[in-house]
Amino acid sequence: MAQTFDVFVRGLDGQTLVVDLPLGARVAELKEDLSARLGLPCDQQRLQLSSGRPLEDDDALEAGCSLDLSLRLLGGVIEPSLRILAQKYNCDKMICRK
Q1: How confident is the model at residue 83 (pLDDT cuts 50, 70, 90)?
Q2: 46, 51, 52, 61: most buried, per Cβ within 10 A?
Q3: pTM value?
Q4: SS3 at position 31
Q5: Tell me: the pLDDT tens digits for 38-47?
Q6: CA 5 – CA 34 distance, rounded (Å)
Q7: CATH fold for domain 1-98
Q8: What are the distances in angstroms from CA 27 to CA 6, 23, 54, 73?
Q9: What are phi and psi of 64, to 5 degrees?
């Protein structure tokens, strides 16, 4: 019986990669393999099923599944002093209309 299975990953360029993984592999292991192949850090990779459901690192993979690879968007919290400044600026620019 086979000790590995194939997973199909559509990359950022639209090309489909065939990744051979050991039985019982998780998404985290797939991300490590993709990191070695493509040079993308694991924490920036986002994998989702072709149906659109995002996968977490501890999710199990099934043989022959098709996944889409994308990158995580950077973002975060605005520093409080900048948020206060933006609110003040927006309030000062308000125009009263009759």
Answers
A1: confident
A2: 61
A3: 0.71
A4: helix
A5: 999 999 999 9
A6: 15
A7: Ubiquitin-like (UB roll) (3.10.20)
A8: 13, 12, 11, 19
A9: 80, 5
